[in-house]
UniProtKB/TrEMBL annotation:
<feature type="transmembrane region" description="Helical">
    <location>
        <begin position="194"/>
        <end position="213"/>
    </location>
</feature>
<dbReference type="InterPro" id="IPR006153">
    <property type="entry name" value="Cation/H_exchanger_TM"/>
</dbReference>
<protein>
    <submittedName>
        <fullName>Sodium:proton antiporter</fullName>
    </submittedName>
</protein>
<feature type="domain" description="Cation/H+ exchanger transmembrane">
    <location>
        <begin position="20"/>
        <end position="390"/>
    </location>
</feature>
<keyword id="KW-0813">Transport</keyword>
<feature type="transmembrane region" description="Helical">
    <location>
        <begin position="369"/>
        <end position="394"/>
    </location>
</feature>
<keyword id="KW-1133">Transmembrane helix</keyword>
<keyword id="KW-1003">Cell membrane</keyword>
<keyword id="KW-0050">Antiport</keyword>
<feature type="transmembrane region" description="Helical">
    <location>
        <begin position="306"/>
        <end position="326"/>
    </location>
</feature>
<feature type="transmembrane region" description="Helical">
    <location>
        <begin position="30"/>
        <end position="50"/>
    </location>
</feature>
<dbReference type="InterPro" id="IPR038770">
    <property type="entry name" value="Na+/solute_symporter_sf"/>
</dbReference>
<keyword id="KW-0406">Ion transport</keyword>
<feature type="transmembrane region" description="Helical">
    <location>
        <begin position="338"/>
        <end position="357"/>
    </location>
</feature>
<feature type="transmembrane region" description="Helical">
    <location>
        <begin position="6"/>
        <end position="23"/>
    </location>
</feature>
<feature type="transmembrane region" description="Helical">
    <location>
        <begin position="56"/>
        <end position="79"/>
    </location>
</feature>
<feature type="transmembrane region" description="Helical">
    <location>
        <begin position="282"/>
        <end position="300"/>
    </location>
</feature>
Amino acid sequence: MYVNLAILAAFIFVYSITCGGLSRTPINGAVVFSGFGLMVGPLGLGVLDISLDTELLRLLAELTLAMVLFTDASNANLAVLKRNLQLPQRLLLVGLPLTIILGVGVGWLLFDTLTLWELALLSVILAPTDAALGKAVVTVPSVPAPIREGLNVESGLNDGICVPILFVCLALATGNSADESSTMLALHLLLEEIGIGLIVAAAVTVCGCWLFKQCNERGWVTNTWMQLPVLTLAVSCFTVAQALGGSGFIAAFCGGLLFGWLIKSQQKHKLLLAAEGSGDTLALITWVVFGATVIAQSIPAFSWHILLYSVLSLTVIRMLPVFLVLSGLKMPAREKLFIGWFGPRGLASIVFAVIVLDTHLAGATTITMTVACTIILSVLGHGLSANPLIAALASRLKKS
């Protein structure tokens, strides 16, 4: 245990003092973290000895995702989002279902060992996007604001929307759907997850912000403890919603949006700095564990079917629905392709894969291997292409 902690502490120290230089290269943090985990894990040097505790990995990934969703949403520009609401609406309400359906169809052609509901599980697991992997796309000012805010909202809400769909497919795949029809089960879970998530987000965030303002006006909030309010609000939104049967991810994202609206911009920036640092640290540990355990165990099981599906998942399965649903908007084709490409898979897919891995389905291994392969390719592809494609898009926008 102490050796593992020493290795992680040393790596976090080195990364924390060099991340500024790395940010100017095409290599993103997830590439470095996963690569380091693979290098020191059992397939590499073998010095990092971490057993695959699925419950621990799931909790770590869930908390990391909740913090990232909350802080990203808090930074959202609601004025820009309000003017360009059509973009995330189309991506979530039409593009997401089309992506899941297309994913099932492609899986049907490639995997003859998976049942229909197992194929649906695989498609749902890989449908949510992770803005943290393509952070430059949603933070760099040279990317048009409507695209930044649209992708940020899409990645913030699609994982929460996919949670009830995942559990419906899981119930049908394992034969635990009882007498309730799949349509009614899906509707019931969707309304429950979203409804409870929204209520919890509103209640926790409004109460938290009111208490913070009261204490801050009296000078009770010190610099020493300034780093904790955002962290605890994010965790509270997520855990309370999960405990009540709702979607913690929707609660975290919507709570972040509300927090960003209720707190003054100057205070918000100061409060978010520490929270973002903590979220990044948790993300680092999650990706190192992912590289040392999941990737290390997945590599021997790779096949050309898995590799092909992973490539198609990041391209055709994602990009075609996005291009189609944006066809009615006055937007150049290059911007539609840009939005379609930047659908990286990350923390949400890890969480969903671990949930499926715990069920011991017949096709669980194939599903997990495919998810791991897709995330690896996403980490590399989206990480290496983010800065060059942003520069190319900015250059064309200047010319036009």
